[in-house]
């Protein structure tokens, strides 16, 4: 239940920050964009790191249970890690498109 509380708090922060972008495009009102970009990239990288850690733990457990299935497990590992890392790169590109 506490995990969902953090999720709801993060969503509330995002929703309360949206009026910042309702103002004009004057340079003085764009102070929140770089801060938001840094926070967004930090969240994306942190969650991707947690996901990659879980994938690596699952692969280590699978290899301990069945060492003969190493080539298939290793292929799935690399594909999974590439997909997780691509999400961080997509976030990075979207942040630069926004700023």
Chart the SSEs and their pairings.
Layout: H1 2-17, H2 32-65, H3 70-98
Helix pairs in contact: 2-3
Major sheet: none
> Radius of gyration over alpha carbons?
19 Å
Quaternary status: single chain
End-to-end Cα distance: 35 Å
Count of helices?
Answer: 3
Give the helix level as a range of percent: over 70%
Structural class comes to mainly alpha
Number of strands: 0
Low-confidence sequence ranges: none
Per the principal axes of the C-alpha atoms, what is the gross shape? Answer: elongated
Give descriptors for this structure:
single chain, mainly alpha, 0% strand, 3 helices, 99 residues
What does this structure look like?
This protein is mainly α. The protein has a domain at about 65-99. It is about 80% helix and about 0% strand. The protein contains 3 helices and no strands. Helix 2 runs antiparallel to helix 3.
Short description:
The protein has about 100 residues and is an all-alpha fold.
């Amino acid at each position: 239940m506490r995990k969902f509380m953090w999720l709801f708090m993060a969503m509330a922060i995002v929703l309360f920050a949206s009026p910042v972008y309702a103002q004009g495009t004057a340079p003085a009102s764009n102070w929140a964009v770089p801060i938001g970009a840094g926070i967004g990239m930090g969240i994306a990288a942190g969650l991707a790191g947690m996901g990659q850690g879980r994938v690596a733990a699952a692969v280590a457990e699978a290899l301990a249970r069945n060492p003969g299935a190493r080539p298939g497990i290793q292929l799935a590992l690399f594909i999974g890690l590439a997909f997780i890392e691509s999400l961080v790169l997509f976030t990075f590109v979207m942040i630069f498109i926004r700023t």
